[in-house]
Amino acid sequence: xxxxxxxxxxxxxxxxxxxxxxxxxxxxxxxxxxxLTSVANDGLPKYWGIPNAETMASLEEAIExxxxxxxxxxxxxxxLEKLLNE
Length: 86
Hints:
mainly alpha
């Protein structure tokens, strides 16, 4: 048995999406079916930009670095260039 998936979107978004999909021979239902099947089989697309564990670790490291009161800063390009060349 198939499961039903419901979602609420603004009317104008539904109309625009329906037109774009129809231009490609698809319905909203068929597009949702294709998308959910792809996510189920292959995971989220890479272009979604959801941070992976490595990216999250890098962000957390940067946040910790910013907490360091000894962290040097620059208020101009010249100052920054000087710091980077030390």
